[in-house]
Amino acid sequence: MSEKKWVTAWGNAISIAERKPENYGKNLTLRYPLIMQLDGDAVRFTLDNFCGSEAVTVTSVTVAKSCGGSDVQADTIKQVPFSGEKSVTIEKGGQVVSDAVDFDVKHGETIVLTMYFADFTELRSGVLITGQFSGGYFAVGDHTYSAQLPVDMSKKTGWYYFLCGADVLTSPQNRCVICYGDSITAQDWPDDLIKLNLEKGNGRTAFIRKAASGTRILRQYDNITYDSYGLKGENRFAHEMNVSGADTVIIQHGINDIIHPVGVDVNKFRPWSDLPTAEEMTDGLKYYLEYAKNTGMEVYFGTLLPIEGWRTYAEFRNDLRNEVNEWIRSENGSDGCIDFDKALCDSEDAAAFAEGFDSGDHLHPSKAAYRRMAETVPENLYK
Hints:
Elements: E1 5-11, E2 15-16, E3 24-25, E4 28-35, E5 40-48, E6 56-58, E7 60-68, E8 71-72, E9 78-79, E10 88-90, E11 95-97, E12 101-105, E13 110-117, E14 121-122, E15 125-128, E16 136-140, E17 154-157, E18 159-161, E19 163-170, E20 175-181, H1 183-186, H2 189-200, E21 205-211, H3 233-240, E22 246-252, H4 255-259, H5 278-294, E23 298-302, H6 315-330, E24 336-338, H7 340-344, H8 367-376
Parallel strand pairs: 20-21, 20-22, 22-23, 23-24
Antiparallel strand pairs: 1-19, 2-15, 3-14, 4-13, 4-16, 5-11, 5-12, 5-19, 6-10, 7-8, 7-9, 7-13, 15-18, 16-17
Helix pairs in contact: 2-8, 3-5, 5-6
């Protein structure tokens, strides 16, 4: 058998956390359950301060088997070292990869990473994620070796800080697929796809999420009111494609470019000059395609979803969406189109979601619609 290789079995984007007065944490534990989609006999973790404005120091990191929720099996807790040391400093804009830790993982199993920050730490590099396998916990004090977090001093959180990847040492035939996008991909459908993969897949593929809410292909906000809407494509895509064992990316991105601009008379940070043409948007998608292809990856584009009823909806925005979608459907340089739009739109009014598929804001899908998106992904990607 060929030598084993590292493959990312769980992954997240790193983006810009929302500016708040309490952007610093101290004496803080973060605990994240991570669903594993591959078998392996060792693990390593990537911590990322890509969007930070100063260095951060992680005092201690451990990994353990999950007992459900925030609880871990005490006899499985292991220290995760960095260059042999318990503590590690991640420079502004930097990234660190832990040493390998001998730790058996199984397809469908949940492991738990726990990090402790003793001193004041800028919580700037982070991303908000939802879904059935997503969410973590924070607690006051050092609980890296605690089987349980104290009930009165811990809370759930959907924010992931610094943690962007969990790799397993696994069979050389195994690989991962990246789901790249904005808030729609930061929400449930990648987790629903993971569930399908665990139930129906061949155990050789992991789906990982690289998504950040509010992000656009062509623009980003350089002000503290909206900078948490993240980096534009050319500033984030290459960073997020640096994933061990990835050979495919599903790209569903661009709706924010269409819906954000409203004119400075309405919002001083959202000028009409930010509204792209269809050609500019497809040029941005071509950049994604070219970059991914040059790294040897297959590329699938997902069409943009219905927006009728959204608070900035206008016919010209829907026309732009349709132009981009037609390019995605007809573009022949990629490896396929995943027609999420067709799967979710109303048969009588293609600008709107079908009944039961609208979350209520007329932009984000419902839980049922997210499941439908996962089912729309070609089975050959995990079978």
